[in-house]
Amino acid sequence: MQHVWAFFVGALVCNCVPHLASGLQGLAFPTPFARPRGVGNSPPLVNVIWGFANLAIAFLIAAHNANSLDMGPDAAAGLAGGLAIGIYLSLHFGKVQRNRRAD
Predict the structure, then answer these.
(1) Mean pLDDT, residues 16-40
(2) Alpha carbons 19 and 21: distance in angstroms, whole number
(3) What residues form the membrane-spanning segments (predicted)?
(4) What is the spatial distance between Cα 59 and Cα 43, in angstroms, rounded to a whole number?
(5) Beta-carbon-side half-sphere exposure of residue 43 (alpha carbons within 13 Å)
């Protein structure tokens, strides 16, 4: 059963990468919340939140199923810091990208 959980952790971590990368660059990218679903682009902030949610769920699954891994408050603080900077960067670089297109 441990391998099944590891598979889901790997899938979630892999899925977080393009969403976080796009969002942190201020670029739109498809998410399940776009119209049409998974095809239309979502704004950078939605991508950061969606990518971060995938990463957080992966951490939670890994922590719950690991024998000696203790995520605890330190991991929660790390996740909060990552989310905070992710939101800031998605908003900042989104503005940068919009300004470039306007020029």
Answers:
(1) 92
(2) 5
(3) 47-63, 75-93
(4) 25
(5) 10
Q: What is the pTM of this model?
A: 0.76
What SS3 state is found at 1? coil
Q: Which residue has the higher pLDDT, 38 or 21?
A: 21
CA 38/CA 43 separation, integer angstroms: 13
DSSP 8-state code for residue 103: -
> Do you know the residue count of the chain?
103
DSSP for 18-83, written as a single string = HHHHHHHTT--EE-TTSSSTTTSEE-HHHHHHHHHHHHHHHHHHHHHH-SS---HHHHHHHHHHHH
